């Protein structure tokens, strides 16, 4: 059979296969490293500043957002992202990167119509679905806790 | 009749590519052809405040140098044809603002370089103009922002993705004798084989390139053996073998005659995924590198086929497939003339 007759299928032979195994491995280790650093920071904040665990957790998130934003501005985070894939995209650092990168990108269009209105271009979907899913889970949780 | 077969123009009057110029960004400068470009920038901003201005600067410089090489001023030009990748072709339109001669803006995505060159040659051959200037540009960051994600966004790209060339190429077409004669052009049809992945444009464009090249051979009753090189614009590492296979099935064996500008412009260790793409890719490699090879006598006759993926992010989100087009121009080295 000719390539042109069943192109969509046959062309797959020519397309490079993503290395799922190595990509997963890299994502696992980078994502795991970020989480381990988070845990270490949390312990540190609790020890040094004698904070309550919930406050320390907020501070860890704040630290990560700051770091990821700085790395994005320095042009490093996209390189980490290309290497680690989901490992650096899924943690809160990825969320911060999506906001910061969009803000930097649209800086040339002004502070209001550029930065502010485009900042959530990538992250907007994450926020919308986080809220929707939190709502649904909240309802389920409420139903179960009142019924049983 | 200057139309031969279905889609090919033969330029009966002598039409020449009188002069050409190129300007490129940092990654292209570091590439294997880096020394062959007229202007090179070490920074993506090219000394400007925004990437859009940087792209415009590249096009302006290419145009200016092209005119200087031809020892002409903009007022000596009858028509200016240009295009780029950005919405409303802003780079071309804003560049044309600074070169006030009759202007036709053209869009053929990454096929624009040969689209403008073919039309320019037709205008000159048909006595509609004495001198026509053509220009195309693309910029990695402006294209990323328009077609993909913010430049600094940390998403992962697959190996089949291409890397948009930062650069611009300009060429002047006239009756003035030069080393490079434009002898024919084949205008492509929009071809869509139902590919949906904008991060694999090579596979989407290969059938368009195959269609134009096959038609060219049929119209002119030629074969790959009649050319030193069949050069494609930006099929990259994925699309190039697909093109060769598609043409082999049609009975045309390109064998070692095929080259792809997207593979010529970068080294394999430059982290450019499957290779270069963008309007500038075919323009800077053809005007910067291939013409020099013709000048040296290494190439006598080449068929340059610029390939364009006619997608938009909106159409991709509406689950449309990627239409593609390819236009080709035949360039021949003229012996002993300069």
From TrEMBL, chain A:
Keywords: Membrane, Transmembrane, Transmembrane helix. It comes from Paranoxybacillus vitaminiphilus. This is Stage V sporulation protein AC. InterPro entries: Spore_V_AC, SpoVA. The chain crosses the membrane at residues 20-42, 48-71, 124-144. It comes from the Bacteria.
TrEMBL record, chain B:
This is Stage V sporulation protein AD. Signal peptide: none annotated. SUPFAM superfamilies: Thiolase-like (SSF53901). It comes from the Bacteria. InterPro entries: SpoVAD, SpoVAD_sf, Thiolase-like. Coiled coil: none annotated. It holds the Pfam family SpoVAD. One of its GO terms (molecular function) is acyltransferase activity. The lineage of its organism: Bacteria, Bacillati, Bacillota, Bacilli, Bacillales.
